[in-house]
Amino acid sequence: MDRNIVEGAKEIFQLDMAHVQKRIYMAVNNKEYLKKMQEIVYTEQAKDIFSLIYNYKVELEADNKKAESEKVKELEEYLRNNEEGL
How far apart are the first and last CA of the chain? Predict the structure, then answer.
């Protein structure tokens, strides 16, 4: 077997950005955070979304917004499980 072909074959995993955008839109009610999160996933710093999510969760918990906080935690879990595709 040709070794170069085997070594050159790499699995590429990328999330469907339309699906990611929908997940963000469904979880985030704050317009400022929504815009930042939707924009950052298209940059080379896409993984910085986790910092935004953390800050947003802190604000939600301080405001005692439990239902929205749960949605954001689900978004974070989804993105963490698929972090390789960001």
Answer: 33
